[in-house]
Amino acid sequence: MFKHILLPVDGSSTASLAVTKALSMAKAFGSKVTALYVLDPYPFASAGPDFAFGQAQYLSAVNTEAEQALKEVANAFAAEGVTVDTVTVDAYAVWKGIIDTSDEVGADVIVMGSHGRRGVEKLMLGSVAQRVVSHAHNSVLIVHHGAGGKAE
Question: Where is the UspA domain positioned along the sequence (predicted)?
């Protein structure tokens, strides 16, 4: 059914739920999987406490974070005997990096977690998942925390 799954990750617990879902789908359908971490190389155009230190320190930290998140995905897939390609991309907006990568690799579904932000937090931070769903040229499966922290 799905030949190529794009799996955007950010190291969060909701991304971990998406990893589990994508792994199950890959096993069921024999799908190719590309795990993606989108780096924002332009943090000083944004606002927030995470950008209180210099550009070089930021880039080092975010690259380390990306490597760790993708390593965890690769290990999870390897433990199940499933191959996954990992890639990092730079994008001025995470949602745009996801959409562009999906188009570039020819994914027919994007499987991603959503943090479920609401109210003012959603207004201020936006919703990557909402923008991906709005702009994607393919199917998108959004994985949420359900009751008890399990994927719905």
Answer: 1-144
Phi-psi region of 55 (alpha: psi -120 to 50; beta: other; left: phi over 0): alpha
d(CA 128, CA 144): 13
Residue 58 has a pLDDT of 77
What's this model's pTM, rounded to 2 decimal places?
A: 0.84
Residue 41 φ/ψ, nearest 5 degrees: -80, 0
Q: How far apart are CA 17 and CA 19, in angstroms?
A: 5
Q: Determine the average pLDDT of the residues in 74-96.
A: 95
Architecture per CATH, 4-143: 3-Layer(aba) Sandwich (3.40)
